[in-house]
């Protein structure tokens, strides 16, 4: 664990038809899509971490994926989640995709591990999904047979985890909101409220959780925020859950964690 100081109308109609079909098959189905940019000492402006944790081509041991507090490992070990698939590579920028199901509810989490050097693409894909663009369906195993899950722009909540690449480069364009569908966004990266505010606002997503300063974007914060989101808690309750978890692991003080992790504009 690393410590820091704390269009078209037709397209829309097609999307709604796809999603409504999936929901009709599985009442209460919700999907979370997480975009993880693997930590990379060579291509990202991060404070260097041990080489085995900062190899952006090695998901098995990467700080944000395969290490103890990485997304894949942490959710695999969580008693609240069940890993149902892992290993698919949907495109060249992604080294691994894992799918988890919440044990008590009909919530699925799809997590993609992007090569460290592909951090720009990870952020662009996250923002496009936040805007409701590029909605996709994937098939996963379920008790009643294969289940279709809406992902990317079809997900209910999208999250980005990793280095704040917008500190290192600028985007030439921001994906714009496509449909009048509420979608929550979580951005666990250093000072994400400052650097992601303009693109997230353009996307139309609601910033459920993001940060005001330097932070360790490890999976316990995301998991705790999702606990509250799944339970139907309000934004401040979700923020408090996340802050409590961050303090537990980072020992930064609850007051400091609450200043760091904020919800809304």
Q: Your description of this structure?
A:
Helix content is 31%, strand content 24%. It has 265 residues and is of the alpha/beta class. The strands form two sheets. It has an eight-stranded mixed sheet, with helices on both faces. It has a two-stranded antiparallel ribbon with strand order 5-6. A hairpin with a 6-residue loop joins strand 5 (135-140) and strand 6. Residues 7-25 have low confidence and may be disordered.
Please describe the structure with a list of short key phrases separated by commas or semicolons.
265 residues; alpha/beta; 8-stranded mixed β-sheet; two-stranded antiparallel ribbon; 7 helices; 31% helix; globular
In short:
The chain is 31% helix and 24% strand. It has 265 residues and is of the alpha/beta class. It starts with 8 loop residues before the first helix and ends with a strand.
User: What amount of the residues lies in strands?
Assistant: 15-25%
CA-to-CA gap between the ends? 29 Å
Largest beta sheet: strand ordering: 2-3-4-1-7-8-9-10
| Rg estimate, integer Å | 17 Å
Mean pLDDT value: 91
How many distinct helices? Answer: 7
The H-and-E topology, N to C, reads as HEHEEEHEEEEHEHHHE
Q: What is the number of strand segments?
A: 10
